[in-house]
């Protein structure tokens, strides 16, 4: 992230590479609004024209600590900003400080402009309910396997199931806890969804 001070005000910038092949996605917070440059397209959205922001936690296999901000315009269109950037074919690097500072500054500028954007955190309600239902079915299946292993005296299987359940709860539990659907305000950003 870069902050530039000039005669017309300050510019805060952030960039990340969404893939190895394409150019970096670049964003700037200027006095005019959110300026973006993505895949040969560019534009400026005034802060009061931003209709919604959704913050979420989105880990992937190459980066287990990845955050995402989805920004929507009131007339349609959406921009995704990620907290990681591709470096090589096998390395995705976190950009935690730059991402956090950019998102916090975006919210501050939107608040100063009198924005009435909808600020949400986590997954959508239906998606979250589907994830919880899947988790409940998986927990029931694991419990049935555990009971079966206990009944037939397969104690190695019991240990495997308990170990797998603990690892799964640790990995997926954080995702579910962080992505609980909720609303937030400009002055109280959800800490669990910022690096």
Describe how the helices and strands are arranged.
Layout: E1 2-6, E2 9-16, E3 25-29, E4 34-38, E5 41-45, E6 50-57, E7 67-73, E8 78-82, E9 84-88, E10 91-94, H1 96-112, E11 118-121, H2 125-151, H3 155-178, E12 182-183
Parallel strand pairs: 6-11
Antiparallel strand pairs: 1-2, 2-3, 3-4, 4-5, 6-7, 7-8, 9-10, 11-12
Helix pairs in contact: 2-3
Transmembrane segments: 128-149, 155-176
Keywords: Membrane, Transmembrane, Transmembrane helix
Protein name: Bll5862 protein
How is this structure best described in words?
The chain has 195 residues and is α+β, with helices and mostly antiparallel strands. It folds into two domains: 2-121, Roll (PH-domain like); 125-176. 35% of the residues lie in helices and 32% in strands. It contains three helices and twelve strands. It has helices at 96-112, 125-151, 155-178; strands spanning 2-6, 9-16, 25-29, 34-38, 41-45, 50-57, 67-73, 78-82, 84-88, 91-94, 118-121, 182-183. The strands form three sheets. Strands 1-2-3-4-5 form a five-stranded antiparallel sheet, covered by helices on one side. Helix 2 (125-151) runs antiparallel to helix 3 (155-178). The chain is elongated, with a radius of gyration of 21 Å. It starts with a strand and ends in a 12-residue tail after the last strand. The model is unreliable at 3-8 (pLDDT under 50). It comes from Bradyrhizobium guangdongense. This is Bll5862 protein. Keywords: Membrane, Transmembrane, Transmembrane helix.
């Amino acid at each position: 992230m870069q902050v530039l001070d000039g005669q017309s005000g300050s510019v805060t910038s952030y960039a990340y590479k969404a893939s190895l092949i394409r150019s970096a996605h670049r964003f700037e917070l200027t006095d005019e609004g959110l300026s973006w440059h993505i895949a040969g397209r560019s534009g400026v959205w005034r802060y009061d024209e931003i209709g919604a922001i959704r913050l979420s936690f989105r880990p992937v296999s190459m980066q287990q600590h990845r955050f995402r901000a989805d920004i929507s315009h009131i007339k349609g269109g959406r921009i995704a900003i990620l907290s990681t950037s591709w470096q090589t074919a096998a390395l995705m690097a976190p950009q935690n400080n730059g991402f956090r500072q950019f998102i916090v500054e975006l919210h501050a500028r939107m608040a100063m402009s009198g924005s009435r954007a909808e600020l949400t955190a986590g997954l959508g309600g239906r998606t979250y309910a589907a994830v919880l239902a899947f988790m409940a079915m998986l927990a029931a299946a694991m419990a049935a396997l555990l009971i079966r292993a206990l009944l037939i005296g397969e104690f190695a299987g019991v240990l495997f199931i308990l170990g797998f359940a603990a690892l799964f709860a640790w990995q997926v539990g954080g995702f579910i806890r962080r992505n609980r659907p909720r609303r937030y305000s400009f002055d109280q950003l959800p800490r669990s969804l910022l690096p």
